[in-house]
Amino acid sequence: MVPRPSKQDKDVTSKVADNGQLNLAPEVVLRKQIIKVRKKDTLASVAKRYKIAVGDVAKLNNLSLDSALKPGQKLVLMLPGKAGGKNKKATQRNKG
Q1: By three-state DSSP, how is residue 2 classified?
Q2: Residue 10 CB burial class (10 angstroms; 0-12, 13-18, ≥19)
Q3: Cα 65 from Cα 24, distance rounded (Å)
Q4: Which residues are bridge partners to 74 per DSSP?
Q5: Model-level pTM greater than 0.85?
Q6: CA of 66: how far to CAs of 31, 37, 45, 76, in Å?
Q7: Would you put residue 62 in left (φ > 0), alpha (ψ -120 to 50) or beta?
Q8: CA angle, corner 80, sides to 75 and 86, nearest 5?
Q9: Can you tell me the distance from the alpha carbon of 37 to that of 73, in angstroms, rounded to the nearest whole number?
Q10: Per residue in 44-93, pLDDT tens?
Q11: Domains along the chain?
């Protein structure tokens, strides 16, 4: 522990300590999604469609920012998902 200067010997009041709050940002979980490039798609148009940064799309796929995309080409995207969400298809298959 670090010693306090004599001016700061008092702790916060009990009322302040009891009513203190800690605000945390919600957890952002990323899910991997593979997409097929459409005709006339660019890195910018794909990034805009999925609301992610162009640089992230390029980096994930080892492409430069000015790379040309071909229809049918597959791209990996990391998209925000919900924490603790269940896969509906897997759940339906397990129900039998």
Answers
A1: coil
A2: exposed
A3: 34
A4: 36
A5: no
A6: 25, 15, 12, 17
A7: left
A8: 105
A9: 5
A10: 999 999 999 999 999 999 999 999 999 999 999 999 886 555 555 544 44
A11: 29-81 (3.10.350.10)
